[in-house]
TrEMBL record:
Record gene name: ispE
Gene Ontology MF terms: 4-(cytidine 5'-diphospho)-2-C-methyl-D-erythritol kinase activity; ATP binding
Active-site residues from the entry: K16, D148
EC number: 2.7.1.148
Name this protein carries in UniProt: 4-diphosphocytidyl-2-C-methyl-D-erythritol kinase
Similarity remark: Belongs to the GHMP kinase family. IspE subfamily.
Length: 305
């Protein structure tokens, strides 16, 4: 059988927002039980993976603007390389891969950039190495590398899964219907936040009393109907108080969204990116212009899905 040494796969690795993020308690392993409505947005890295001959290493070339690639490792600690190394260990193969990763998603933003890259690497790697594995197996491998990765594997492998209710540590992914094109404005302040540091500053008071109401389910119902006003009333992020304790300047971003008349806005994941929902794309673009003038960070008007 001829080796398909030149087989190449190019995939988008989208960013995500946590439209609702509820913490339910701390686990014995130090992680938190959560439930969250996650959805991809129209901001994405691009990954190109080419299969190389047996015995070759996994190599990575990083492309993108300096402010986006700064701090992103190019060695074996990059999540893309870790994902491909895990894949070939699991498959017990020694095929190599050369990867070109173009960064557009900012890091330390709560937008899941590195996790999405890792998920795209798993999907692309399985394709170019012709493993023929089901999505579920790739999600399981991804879950060992990071809590957000199973969601992204599902979203990248099947566009219908670009929105999901995520539970457990992040490994339980239940796709939920979404209506394309809901406008959002995302702001990434100059400062970033470490996910571990934000979880580390979380206190039980930040999420006490949540048991009674499943706001994530309400948010999923609103997203399925495409009703942005209803979705705006279901926003919640239990990590936001901890993020604000660590980075008080986030209050300035919150106030900026208020000043733009945005009806629903919050932090995404562990931050520092912040987003707001808008009824139309023209209103989102107008708000983005105002937010840029307020100089709160890199600002993008885009859509969910
Ligand atoms: C904030 C979110 O992005 C929301 O989707 C995720 O919960 C975090 O996902 P992630 O970046 O893939 O996180 P991981 O790489 O698995 O873990 C980073 C750190 O976050 C904390 N962590 C993460 C997930 C979770 N359910 N509970 C936690 O307490 C742990 O301190 C962990 O050391
Ligand atoms: N492919 C990658 N892209 C970006 N960062 C990476 C990558 N691989 C490893 N990293 C490291 O991981 C750190 C966090 O990156 P990432 O963008 O995933 O975090 P995040 O925005 O906090 O995402 P999340 O929403 O998953 O918490 C970076 O600061 C960087 O050192």
């Amino acid at each position: 059988m001829p080796l398909s040494a030149s087989l190449t796969c190019r995939l988008d690795a989208p960013a995500k927002l946590n439209l609702c993020l509820e913490l339910l308690g701390r686990r014995d392993d130090g992680f938190h039980h959560l439930r969250s409505l996650m959805a991809t947005i129209g901001l994405r890295d691009t990954l190109r993976v080419t299969a190389e001959a047996p015995g070759s290493p996994v190599t990575l070339k990083l492309l993108g603007a300096p402010h986006l690639t700064r701090g992103v490792p190019t060695d074996g600690s990059n999540l893309v390389v870790r994902a491909l190394e895990s894949l070939r260990q699991e498959a017990q193969i020694d095929r190599g891969a050369s990867v070109q990763l173009t960064k557009r998603v900012p890091s330390q933003a709560g937008l899941g950039g590195g996790s999405s890259d890792a998920a795209a690497a798993l999907v692309a790697g399985a394709h170019v190495w012709e493993l023929g594995w089901p999505r579920e197996r790739l999600m399981e491998i991804g879950g060992r590398l990071g809590s957000d990765i199973p969601f992204f594997v599902a979203a990248i492998a099947d566009r219908r899964r670009r929105a999901a209710v995520v539970a457990g540590r992040g490994e339980q992914v239940t796709p939920t219907p979404w209506v394309a094109g809901l406008p959002v404005v995302v702001v990434k302040p100059a400062g970033g936040l470490s996910t571990a540091a934000v979880y580390g500053r979380c206190q039980p008071e930040d999420y006490a009393g949540v048991e009674g109401r499943d706001r994530t389910n309400d948010a999923a119902t609103a997203l399925a109907s495409g009703d942005w006003r209803r979705l705006a009333t279901t926003l919640r992020n239990h990590l936001q108080p901890a993020a604000v304790r660590l980075a008080p300047w986030l209050e300035g971003v919150r106030r900026a969204f208020d000043r733009c008349g945005c009806a629903g806005h919050q932090l995404s994941g562990s931050g520092s990116a912040y987003f707001g929902l808008f009824p139309t794309m023209s209103e989102a673009r107008r708000a983005a212009v105002r937010l840029r003038a307020l100089r709160v960070g890199q600002t993008l008007a885009t859509t969910i899905g």
